[in-house]
From TrEMBL:
Signal peptide: none annotated. InterPro entries: Trm112-like. It comes from the Bacteria. In the C-terminal section; belongs to the UPF0434 family. This is UPF0434 protein Ga0061063_2253. GO terms for cellular component: cytosol.
């Protein structure tokens, strides 16, 4: 994913910054503790597609 593209993407719920988790191919919102999947290089920025992070999951 292009770094410039990542700089302009924000969480659709809280409008906060996102962190890229390359290993899981997800964009993570630390504030809402949601992870949005990236499929075929396209981030799916829908709340219905996001998974909640488990309490023990660390936001990288």
């Amino acid at each position: 994913m292009d770094a410039k593209f990542l700089d302009i993407l924000v969480c659709p719920l809280c409008k906060g910054p996102l962190k890229l988790d390359k290993a899981r191919q997800e964009l993570v919102c630390p504030g809402d503790r949601l992870a949005y999947p990236i499929r075929d290089g396209i981030p799916l920025m829908l709340e219905s597609e996001a998974r909640e992070l488990a309490p023990e999951e660390e936001v990288k």
